[in-house]
Amino acid sequence: MNECKECESGAKEKSGVETTRRRFLVAMMAAAAFIISVILGIPFIGALVQSRSGEQKQKWVKVADMQYFPEGEPVRINFALREQDAYLEQTAVHSVWVVKHSASEVTAYSPICPHAGCYYNWNTLLRRFECPCHASVFRIDGPVVAGPAPRPLDTLPVKVENGALFVTWERFKTGVPEKIMV
């Protein structure tokens, strides 16, 4: 009987050690899972809060000095824009078509055709914008002259300050008659 009592007390000690180790490991795994969840969840929560806080503020990007643009002649200009998606930040190169009407009045068009998303060009000889994909044609002031484009060229917000042109880059849904921001 002494052996059984010793076996029982040994088993209790042994199981007490195992239970303590097991609890410790479970607690460590739970703590690690919590820390990883918090680290991965912060950008997700930030994206949710940002999207629910309403429209984002307009990002004005300096495109060029106004003296660069000849009056009445479209100029395609490229510019770099820092974009942030959740916690990823990158630089993207965009372009716009700019038509200067006077020293302080200017129109900027998205270079993307509203029909299928192709990039259109300026035809200097015929003085019109032409899309090479499906033959849409636009006047210098934006309206559709010919082709399947469902709406005029998409204009972008512009402002002129201290002789410089600033543009807010926006992208619109293609193939629909309404100008819907994507």
Which features would summarize this protein structure in a list?
Rieske Iron-sulfur Protein; 2 domains; about 180 residues; about 30% helix; 4-stranded antiparallel beta sheet
Description of the structure:
The chain has 182 residues and is α+β, with helices and mostly antiparallel strands. Helices cover 28% and strands 31% of the residues. The chain has one helix at 2-52, and strands at 60-65, 75-85, 88-100, 106-109, 121-123, 128-130, 137-138, 144-146, 155-156, 158-161, 164-168. A four-stranded antiparallel β-sheet has the order 2-3-4-9, with no helix packed on it. It has a four-stranded antiparallel β-sheet with strand order 5-6-7-8, with no helix packed on it. The protein has a three-stranded antiparallel β-sheet with strand order 1-11-10, with no helix packed on it.
Provide a concise account of the structure shown:
The protein is of the alpha+beta class.
Biggest sheet overview: 4 strands, antiparallel
Sketch the topology as an H/E string, one letter per element: HEEEEEEEEEEE
Which geometry do the CA atoms define? elongated
End-to-end distance, in Å?
82 Å
Number of strands: 11
The neighbouring-strand order within the major sheet is 2-3-4-9
Helix content: 25-40%
Number of domains: 2
Poorly predicted regions are none
Q: Which value, in Å, is the CA radius of gyration?
A: 31 Å
- Classify the beta-strand content into a percent band: 25-35%
CATH level-four homologous superfamily name of the largest domain:
Rieske [2Fe-2S] iron-sulphur domain
The helix-and-strand class reads: alpha+beta
| CATH fold-type name of the largest domain | Rieske Iron-sulfur Protein
CATH architectural category of the largest domain: 3-layer Sandwich
Please tell me the overall pLDDT.
85
CATH class of the largest domain: Mainly Beta
What's the tally of helices? 1
